[in-house]
Amino acid sequence: MKKVIMDVDTGVDDALAILYALESRQLYVLGITTVNGNVPLGMVNANTLKVLSLADRADVPVHPGADRPLMRTSEHVHHIHGDDGIGNALDDFSYSNQCQEQFAADFIIEQAKKHPGEVTLIAVGPLTNLALAFSKEPKLSEWLDEVVIMGGLVSEMGRGNKLPNSEFNIYTDAEAAQIVFHSGAETTLVSLDVTKQTLLSNRCIKTLEGRKYHDFVQQSTEVYRAFSKERFNLDGCALHDPLTVGYVLNNDFLKTKKHHVDVDTVSPLNYGQTVCDFNNLLGREPNVNVCLGVDAEAFVSHFLETLGREG
C-alpha cells in the first residue's frame, strides 16, 4: 500500500477526501496533519477527529499544525462549509480520539525521513505546514516521493474562487505556496481547472442511499451545494479535495504536464495567482506537474463506489 500523509483544513470536501482515502483500501495513511484554512484550527482538529471516528479509524493519528498563515491574517469560509466547517452534520456525534502533541511539520519530516522515497504528501488546504517543514529540513524534498496539492488555477484565468485569478488554498498563504513550489520536491498541482469539472450532485448522493456515509454526505454538503448553485450555477458541489486523493489512487484520472509555475505574492489584484509559463517565456526549469484534463465521469464513479462499499 502506498504510504501517505494527508494535510487538511477539514471543511466539507476535506472530510470527503479523508473518507475516500481510508475506504479506498489502497493507501496507508500514516497520519493526518491539520492547518488553519476553511475554518479556524480548533474546528479543523475537531472535524478531523470526528470524521476519523465516523470511519471507525480512530487509530489514525492527527497532528495539529499552523494556526495562521506565515505572513497574512487568517480568512475563513463558513458561508461555504457551514458554521462548524462540515455543514453541522456531526454536531451530536461523540468521539473520544484526541490530537497528538507532535507538531504537524515535525511529523511530516519524521515520517519522510523514516520512509525515504515512499511517502506521498497529499495537501488539500493552505500550504503553511509544508512550507514550515521544507524550511526546517531542506532534505525533505529528497525524502518525499511526491507532493500532490489541491490548489491554484493555471489556464482558466478569471474563474478563480477567491480572486478572479486566485484559488482559496493558495490565496490563503501564497508565501507558503511559493516556498513549496520551489522546494525541489516532485509536485503535482490539482487545480480548479479540473476539480470544477467533478461535481457531487443530488443524483450522485442518491446512489449512496442505504450505505454508511449517505446521511453524512447529504447533510455535510447541503450548504456547500446551495452556495455552488447560487454563485456558480452548478448542479452540485465540486469534489476538489477528493479528486486530489483520486489522482494518488489512479493518476489516469488526470492528464498532466510539467511546467514552470510561480505564485504572485505582490499584486493586490492577483495575490495568490499560480502563474504557469506554458510557452517557457521565462526559460526556467519546469517545477510543477499541472493538470490539463480530467476523466470526471470515471473519477466520480470511483469516488461513489468507494464510499458506498460494504464492509
Automatic annotation (TrEMBL):
Name the UniProt record assigns to this protein: Nucleoside hydrolase
UniProt GO BP: purine nucleoside catabolic process
Transmembrane parts of this sequence: none
Hydrolase among keywords: yes
PANTHER family xrefs: INOSINE-URIDINE PREFERRING NUCLEOSIDE HYDROLASE, URIDINE NUCLEOSIDASE
Keywords, comma-separated and alphabetical: Glycosidase, Hydrolase
Organism: Salinicoccus roseus
Entry's Gene Ontology molecular function annotations: purine nucleosidase activity
InterPro entries: Inosine/uridine_hydrolase_dom (IPR001910), IUNH (IPR023186), Ribo_hydro-like (IPR036452)
Organism phylogeny: Bacteria, Bacillati, Bacillota, Bacilli, Bacillales
Gene Ontology CC entries for this record: cytosol
Domain Inosine/uridine-preferring nucleoside hydrolase: start-end pairs: 4-300
